[in-house]
Amino acid sequence: VLAVVFWVILRLLAVVEARYIGLLTMITLTSFPAILYAIPVEKFMTMELARVINLWFLAVVAIWRVALFGTYLHRLYALSGWVTMLALLLPLMAIVASLAVLNLEHVVFNIMAGIDESPQSANDAAYRLVFFLAALSYLGFVPVLLVFLATVCWRWSKRRESS
Predict the structure, then answer these.
(1) Mind listing the pLDDT tens digit for each residue in 88-144?
(2) Per residue in 118-133, pLDDT tens?
(3) Do 48 and 120 meet the contact criterion of CB atoms below 8 Å apart?
(4) Which DSSP letter does residue 1 get?
(5) Do residues 1 and 9 touch, judged by C-beta distance below 8 A?
(6) What is the DSSP string of 64-90?
(7) Would you state the pLDDT for residue 108?
């Protein structure tokens, strides 16, 4: 599904023809470092240290995936730097906001209500980070979408002029 989303975005933005199989392969290849986040560090560390390590694992995996995929988009599809950022931000913001709505609503409610249903876990820091990113995504999605639509219109007008 993520490959389809990027394929549609690249069909609208890219100078070079976007190939679905190439996008799907690249997205698949960026997933390997996520195995770091599956390491059960809370089994052999203190809970506080496990929270910090899990947060670092999450950051390393996310930065690796976005940087690698951004480099791929920039080089293969001849996108400028800001258009590459736009092509990355729009779907990523939508994904983070959707994850918050679909999966973390009970966590957000419990945090806001001060309800402590279970003891702390090693993933608490990661949940807080996802909550923060979701808040940023909610605030930034509409402006990024407007810039995306303006960029698509500008690129289409340039294509018409050149043909």
Answers:
(1) 888 888 877 776 666 554 454 444 333 345 555 556 666 677 777 777 777 788 888
(2) 555 556 666 677 777 7
(3) no
(4) -
(5) no
(6) HHHHHHHHHHHHHTT--HHHHHHHHHH
(7) 44
Read off the DSSP letter of residue 16: S
Could you give the CA distance from residue 5 to residue 73 in angstroms, rounded to a whole number?
14
- Mean pLDDT is lowest, of 21-35, 44-58, 94-108, for 94-108
Q: How far is it, in rounded angstroms, from Cα 94 to Cα 137? A: 7
CA nearest neighbour of 100 among 76, 66, 136:
136
Q: Which of 69, 99, 96 is nearest to 6 (CA)?
A: 69
- What is the rounded distance in angstroms from the CA atom of residue 34 to the CA atom of residue 13? 29
The pair phi, psi for residue 15, each rounded to 5°, is -80, -40
Q: Is the dihedral of CA 6, 10, 12, 17 positive or negative?
A: negative
What one-character DSSP code corresponds to residue 115? -
